[in-house]
Amino acid sequence: MPCLLYAAWRLVLFPAFPSTHALFGDWYNHADHATAFLIGFLLAKQEGIWRDVERQRWLALLAAAACFFAFILVRAGLFTPSPALKWAAASAYGCYQWLAIAAVLGFARRSFTADGPARRYLTDAIFPYYIVHQTAIIVIAHQLHGSGLSAGIEASIVIVGTALTCVATYEIVRRVAWVRPLFGLRAAPRTLRRVEQQPA
């Protein structure tokens, strides 16, 4: 079902509303991202589905790779363009989106379910990273425009710079109580609340 939804958005909305990342009018991206959010919301407590996702993680990974490879072959211009080919490419890309998500979640459930300080730290960091990352990418890439660097070096600088920006921002934000809620964090750090709740 998720594959069908993602493929439908790619087939119906993407041709009419190309990706702009604008707040209004970017109906393809809005539908795409809303679908991911709603699937996560609906499946969060479905233990049976999570067991299936974990069990079929390798199948999902192979199917995602096959769909992506098919999409790239079409986009490379190796075949004569036709409406059927465009339909197949859009469908392959839509299926790839969900299958890749399922594969990542399956491997994560298999390998990263144990609790610990690193997991708790990263769990709190997720939303601040999400808020900051796109702005960091755009600012760094804009500064590199016309630098004459190779694509590989520019990409490396953007990736490393974005990661460091996310880490630095989170480390600052989590220490300033009034800023924390603006980045989706609890008003008081988890460890601080634990200390306050302990009996005297």
Q: Helical segment tally? A: 8
**Biggest β-sheet strands, sense, barrel:** none
What overall form do the CA principal axes indicate? Answer: globular
The fraction of residues assigned to DSSP E strands is under 5%
Q: Averaging pLDDT over every residue, what do you get?
A: 88
Binned, the helix content reads over 70%
Q: In terms of structural class, how would the helical and strand content be classed?
A: mainly alpha
Low-confidence stretches: none
Q: What is the H/E string? A: HHHHHHHH
Rg (C-alpha, Å): 21 Å
Number of DSSP strand runs: 0
Could you give the distance between the termini? 53 Å
Topology:
Layout lengths: L1 H15 L10 H17 L3 H9 L1 H19 L7 H29 L5 H28 L6 H23 L16 H8 L3
Helix pairs in contact: 1-2, 1-5, 3-5, 4-5, 6-7
Structure description:
By secondary structure, this protein is mostly helical. The chain has helices at 2-16, 27-43, 47-55, 57-75, 83-111, 117-144, 151-173, 190-197. The longest helix is centred in the middle third of the chain and has 29 residues, at 83-111.
